[in-house]
Specification:
The chain is α/β, with parallel strands linked by helices and 387 residues long. The chain folds into three domains: 162 residues, Cytidine Deaminase, domain 2; 149 residues, Cytidine Deaminase, domain 2 (3-Layer(aba) Sandwich); 47 residues, Helix Hairpins (Orthogonal Bundle), CATH 1.10.287. Helices cover 35% and strands 21% of the residues. It is built from 13 helices and 15 strands. A hairpin with a 2-residue loop joins β9 and β10. The protein starts with a strand and ends in an 8-residue tail after the last strand. The model has no long low-confidence stretch (mean pLDDT 94).
């Protein structure tokens, strides 16, 4: 049995912390990952492993505090998305595309993230990771070129973890809370396209691309702190509302993040006049503030220093016009919708496809709301709470 002594638990005052595992499962190649790092690593690895299995495509996730800020499969990027994701002139492999999408979903939340990659890390992906503020990465293997790049990150202290890609676990999960032991069978449910057949709305048209998006949403939800709602477009998460007590707040949060993601691709945003050698986190903060409707005098004084000239902000009308182009978005929910308000809000942010467990006494009301908008809804019968 392998064991790692960790510097502390979730907080420095929790001085005793360790990790136990089968000897050949985990190898720390570099760095000194923390308790929270490993929680992110193990959860994010399960996500990308299952995402690759379900889609047969390279997969990546960006994790913060045991929930994904982004997750994606390795679909190619358009030129505008490359610009929005700041990937430069690097020739992108499928894995690099997946990572770019996962990191590009919610760049503010991905600051200082943990990265999970479904397959051998190549040079292109490592070059992208090199540029970002990140705590560490987990993957089944690394090319020599990729490893050399990663080992030089953070002054040689970047956390690099290798995991046995064939390792799996189907038994009982055990945890101790306040001296009381909890146990449950692991949630071994992995969705497949064949399970997206129970369409409960009048509109029953699902393309193969949409089915992939629905799978991305379901698998992402499986490793997102509940309650959770996830919006997906073109193979990547574009908004994740995690850990909210009310489902409508999950939907609002996910939708707001999706809108922010889309606004970052507006031509005015892509051509903002940043000062030379601006740091990537400062640039991300500047864009986020640029998209706010109003700034206080203090915020304005801070914000203007990021630009060579003060840019003309997007008007509410320009935002509305641009967001009207966001459509064909897929939404997943980890549990049933108790009210139609979730559908009403989601539709405003381009949602046209929904996957959820179903099972509410108000299912008919929710289905009727989807029918009013022409939304396709799939019921899986599988709740995906994760705590």
């Amino acid at each position: 049995m392998g064991e790692l002594q960790l510097k502390y638990g979730c907080n420095p005052q929790q001085e005793k912390a360790n990790l136990k595992f089968r000897d050949d499962v985990i190898k720390v190649i570099n760095g000194n990952p923390s308790y929270i790092n490993f929680m992110d690593a193990i959860n994010s690895w399960q996500l990308v492993k299952e995402l690759k299995k379900a889609t047969n495509m390279a997969s990546a996730a960006s994790f913060k505090h045991v929930s994904p800020a982004g997750a994606a499969i390795g679909k190619p990027l358009s030129d505008s998305m490359k610009k929005a994701y700041f990937v430069g002139k690097i020739e992108l492999s499928p894995l690099a595309c997946a990572y770019s999408r996962a990191r590009g979903a919610d760049r503010m939340s991905s600051f200082g993230d943990w990265i999970a990659l479904s397959e051998k890390v190549d040079k292109a992906t490592a070059l992208l990771i090199k540029k970002e503020v990140s705590d560490g990465v987990i993957a089944p293997s690394y090319s020599k070129e990729a490893l050399d790049i990663l080992l030089a990150k953070k002054g040689g202290n970047y956390n690099v973890v290798q995991i046995d890609e064939n390792y799996d676990f189907t038994g009982e999960e055990v945890r101790n809370i306040f001296g009381i032991t909890f146990s449950q069978d692991r949630n071994n449910y992995i969705p497949s396209i064949s399970e997206l057949s129970n369409i409960v709305t009048k509109n029953k048209k699902l393309s193969e691309n949409v089915k992939l998006d629905l799978l991305v949403s379901i698998i992402t939800l499986k490793y997102t702190q509940s309650n959770s709602v996830c919006l997906v477009y073109d193979g990547q998460v574009i908004g994740c509302g995690a850990g909210q007590q009310s489902r409508i707040h999950c939907t609002r949060l996910a939708a707001e993040k999706a809108e922010n993601w889309f606004l970052r691709q507006h031509p005015k945003v892509l051509n903002l006049p940043f000062v030379k050698k601006i740091k990537r986190p400062d640039r991300d903060n500047a864009i986020d503030m640029y998209l706010l409707d109003e700034l206080s005098p203090q915020e304005q004084a801070y914000w203007k220093d990021f630009f060579t000239t003060i840019p003309e902000k997007l008007t509410k009308e320009e935002k509305s016009e641009w967001l009207s182009k966001l459509t064909d978005v897929s939404l997943g929910s980890d549990a049933f919708f108790p009210f139609r308000d979730n559908i009403d809000r989601a539709y405003k942010s381009g949602v046209r496809y929904v996957v959820q467990p179903g099972g509410s006494v108000r299912d008919s009301i929710v289905v009727n709301a989807c029918d009013e908008y022409g939304i396709v809804m799939v019921n899986t019968g599988k709740r995906l709470f994760h705590h």
